Amino acid sequence: MASYFGEVLETSSRAYNEDINDDELKGAFKSEYEISWESSHRPDEVDLCFVIAGKCSRAFSAFLRRKTSPQLIAKISQVHKRDDGEYSIVKHGKETFSCIYMLKTGVYLCEVSPDVQLTHANIFTAKMHEFLELSKEVIVLASIAAVQYLSLNTNDAPFIKGLGNSKYLTSGKELLAPKMEPPNLVTGVAAAVLMFCELKKISGCLYVCYTLREEFDSEVFDLLKKLFSQVQSLESAVTGLKYEGSDSECFPHRAGNLYL
Question: Over 60: is that where the pLDDT of 218 sits?
Answer without folding.
Answer: yes
